[in-house]
Structure prediction request, 325 residues.
Amino acid sequence: MVATNTTRATLPPDAAGPQAGHPGRRGLSPQAEGMLALLVTVSIWAAFALSARALSGSSLLPADAALLRFGVPLVVLFPALWRRRRAIAAVRPGPAVKIVCGAGVPFFLAAMHGGALTSAAFVGSIVPGMVPLFVSAIMIRRGHGVPRGTQAAGLALIAAGVAALVWRYVVPVDTDVLAGAGTLLVASGLWALYTVGLREVGLDPIGSIGLLCLPSFAVIGVLVLTGVLPTGIAHAAGSDIALFLVVQGLGVGLCAGLLYAFAIRRLGAERSAVVGSLSPVAVVLLAVPLLGETPTLAVLVGVPLITAGVVLANRRPRPKVPADA
Prediction:
């Protein structure tokens, strides 16, 4: 996320010291653990962006993908979630709403719909790339001050990158792409809420997944049963079900959920948005062989701007070293 010098992750007392029982042996630092988790999350989120685009050409409908996304983690983690049921139920309504709306059904449907109208490059660039801007806006509203220096320059580059992506669709107007880009901006704003909400709950990563998936699966189940959202999973191709089960259910729903929540606790909400600086590039590169997408000039200009912007927005000034140190 954007570094504003106001958010810091709270580390466990023994996080930086030698491993217990091994005085001469040191493990990874909390920061290194968080960055490693983010790097793995990048690859999973790249797969999410690709699947969001691929959904429009598969035999599955958005509701089917959502059922796999939120249902698989509940099945896999059921025993662990049952042990945490009281802690999950005790979460305050405010942070719970941020998590459930920020990464639940509203986010998922917005990302899938936006991906169907645009491209994988749009999903992979706009959704994670705009998170630092939205998180910064949330922090400003909380009185944490306006970003300055390289942080402000980074945010400006992110905005310029998104403008470069959509500019060619403004004249002449392409309503589908512009509507898709707007929907992806909504999804990015929702994800920023989720990112901030994770820092406000006292749950471990597994508990955070339960807090997200339990109400989300219930909501999507009600929408399907009442006919509000159509479903075609009963007649879908087995290969499509297997693909989305692995990518959405196990990858995004389980692994990325655990790793991202872990990274938030290690690095803080704002620093964790650094994942956005790598995700757009990975998506663009993977979309060429996997989806046959050819990067346009707008993508070749916009994605590097967004990447550079996220990197600058996450730069922290080095602490001054005393002269006698």
Q: What stands out?
A: The CA atoms of residues 88 and 279 lie 30 Å apart. DSSP finds 14 helices and no strands in the chain.
